[in-house]
Amino acid sequence: MKLFLMAAAGLVALSGADLGSFKTVYLLPMSNGLDQYLAMRLTSDAVMQVVTDPQKADAILTDKIGKSFEEAVNDLYGDKKKDENQQTAMQPVTRGHGAIFLVDRKTRDVVWSTYERPKNSMPDELNRTADRIARRLEKDRKGKQ
To answer: What integer pLDDT is reported at residue 143 of this predicted model?
Structure first.
């Protein structure tokens, strides 16, 4: 699974997504409250502006993609006009096991991802994990500008 996620991250990097164009991010709730630690790190390190109003976000940061993610985004931004009988093609890829995804709000495409699994759910470890994620995102954003 880790190999798959690292390969996916590499493909995202090769896709040409301009990470520097994303200035504001909305964080969906994450396992063990990791979203709160990420919000602190992203803002204190000036990586991206974290917004509490999803309408002001350029991107969404989440630890889950798939049906539950799509439902959450539909609740926030409105359904993408799909037929009631139409099933979502993408099944959940992860459920809070270390994968983090930055998703373009408008296209709902994953534009960046990383794998950084906390060793435990203690606050200090979650803070260290959030710091590693924020540093990696900052580095990748600078490399794309």
So the answer is: 82
Residue 126, classified by CB atoms within 10 Å of its CB into exposed (0-12), middle (13-18) or buried (19+), is buried
- With tokens 């006009």, the residue in question is 81
| Domain spanning 2-144: CATH 1.10.260 | no
Task: Answer whether 0.85 is exceeded by the pTM.
Answer: no
The Cα–Cα gap between 43 and 49 comes to 6
Please state, in angstroms and as integers, the Cα–Cα distance from residue 20 to each residue in 84, 91, 125, 140, following that order.
36, 29, 28, 9
Give the confidence band of 7 by pLDDT, cuts at 50, 70, 90: low
Query: At which residue do the structure tokens 């309408």 appear?
Result: 55
The Cα 110–Cα 12 span in angstroms is 7
79, 100 Cβ separation under 8 angstroms: no
Q: Give the position of tokens 């301009």.
A: 18
Q: Radius of gyration (Cα) for the chain, nearest Å?
A: 15
> Is 81's pLDDT higher than 90?
no
